[in-house]
Amino acid sequence: MTGRSLRARLWIGAALSITLALVVAGLGLVTLFERHVERRIGEELRVQLNQLAAAVTVTPQGDVALTREPADPRFGQPLSGLYWQIDGVGHPGLLRSRSLWDQLVELTADDLEPGTVHAHEATGPGSQRLLVRERRILLKPGGKTLSLRLMVGVDRAELASARDAFAADMLPYLLLIALVLAAATFVQVQTGLAPLDAVRRGLGAIRSGRARRLGEAYPDEVMPLVGEVNALLMEREQAVDRARAWTADLAHGLKTPLGALVADAQRLRERGNAALAEDLELLATSMRRRVERELVRARVRSGAHVRQAHADVVDAIRRLLRTLQRTPEGARLDWRVVAPPQARAALVADDLMELLGNLLENAAKWAQSEVHVRVRLGDRVEIQIADDGPGVPPEQLSRLGERGLRLDERRDGSGLGLAITRDVVDACGGTLLFEAVDTGGLSARVQLPRAASDS
Fold first, then answer.
1. pLDDT grade, residue 30 (50/70/90)?
2. Are 331 and 369 in contact (CB under 8 A)?
3. What angle do CA 57, 58, 63 make, to 5 degrees?
4. pLDDT class for 130, splitting at 50, 70, 90?
């Protein structure tokens, strides 16, 4: 997922930039060092060349000689890499350093101006590449002019060795700089992405119900995004409000026709048509219940669920059981409840009553003699409602909660209760699982998020 990660992209870009910068800096420093050393060696060769020129003399016999040898001991060490040589016109190697042993440095046939120092390269013993400084001097012994060519040269391998040593000494410092730049990049990336993390936390607060809008304490570059998100949230709230208002208007508009339908049923009963009156009353009751449940579905699906709300699960179960035990179906059952003194779930009390009411009504409808209700507290509030009824075939368990599904048409019902229960559970971020119990009945296991004040 590197290609989709902004953090990874920034790290890759920083790594490439740091590597490129350090490589360029390293090469540049090595090159500058090499040039500096080369200039320094060139100055030393110039000094030695001047010393050599000052020591040249002509003996009374007309031979070229030195009044003193150059002081550097490398001149006396064979093939040491530091050499001097004096050439006469047509007589190369009149004098040379002991370091040349029995070899000569072949110089290019340049026409040098007397006194001018010439810098170039030449091939030395063993194919060594020499950095050379040479000059031409004129001597006039006995009234005759004698032209001599003086050369001092050093093997460039010494320069390369110094360069390589410098590069090796510099490498640990470049690595240290890389670590410092990596740490600076880490701080920069964290600081640069911190506003996006703040936006993410703000959206999490909105989703959990702790806030309605993103704040204004963001950098200028992020504020356009914050503004668009807030505008989107406002439009969503307005759409939800319109949908809820439309649903309420629809429910209100249906109440009058349903009331008229009940009144018509009463008039039919008074005229002696009891069967038709009963059918109309059942139809009106079914339609009213459908409308009420659709209102619940509209509320939980519209996003009106408040995650910071809280409701007492145990109290809701007790209130529902008191109502169910007054009905013919509930009165015949043995209700066994195991629960802590208090368990608070993070959802609206009305939604909790709708959720538990549907599950308890379903258990009362199918149970033979008893219903077990158990509440457990952990990271979440777990509610288990198990009956000893005929149960549900295993292949149908996963379908429970589908809208309008009725596995037994012989019992009254619209098939909406468990579907609404699933809607409420999904809206609050819980889970709903149907299982078969050992006695052959059905177990409904609900896990709901605990209220913030109870966790």
1. very high
2. no
3. 130
4. very high
Residue 410 · residue 352 · CB < 8 Å: no
Residues in CB range of 445: below 8 A, 6 or more apart? 382, 383, 384, 432, 433, 434, 435
Please give the structure tokens belonging to residue 110. Answer: 């340049």
How is residue 14 annotated by DSSP? H
**Per-residue pLDDT tens digits for 410-434:** 444 445 677 778 888 887 888 888 8
Determine which of 57-66, 336-345, 383-392, 408-417 has the lowest per-residue pLDDT on average: 408-417
- Residue 94 structure tokens: 């009149």
- The CA distance from 377 to 383, in Å, is 9
The two tokens of residue 234 are 């406002």
397 vs 368, higher pLDDT: 368
In terms of DSSP H, where are the helices of 220-336?
Answer: 223-270, 274-301, 313-324, 328-331
Please, which residues bridge with residue 131 across strands?
Answer: 121, 154
Give CA–CA dist 101/83, Å, rounded.
10
DSSP per-residue letters across 59-94: -TTS-EEESS--S-GGGGSTT-SEEEEEEETTEEEE
Q: How many residues are given for the chain? A: 455
Do 196 and 222 contact (CB within 8 A), yes or no? yes
Q: At what angle do helices 6-55 and 156-207 cross, to 10 degrees?
A: 160
> In this predicted structure, which of 5-9, 91-95, 205-209, 298-302 has the lowest mean pLDDT?
298-302
Burial class (CB in 10 A: 0-12, 13-18, 19+), 233: middle
Q: Residue 422 in contact with residue 415, Cβ under 8 Å?
A: no
> For the whole model, what pTM was predicted?
0.54
Give, as one character, the DSSP assignment of residue 7: H
Which residues, in sequence order, are CB contacts of 405 under 8 Å at separation 6+?
A: 399, 415, 418, 419
Mean pLDDT in residue range 193-207: 82
> What is the rounded CA–CA span in Å between residue 37 and residue 35?
5
User: Which residues neighbour 359 within 8 Å (Cβ) at sequence distance 6 or greater?
Assistant: 385, 418, 421, 444, 446
CA dihedral 13→19→24→27, nearest 10 degrees, is -170
Cα–Cα distance for residue pair 413/434, rounded to 1 Å: 19
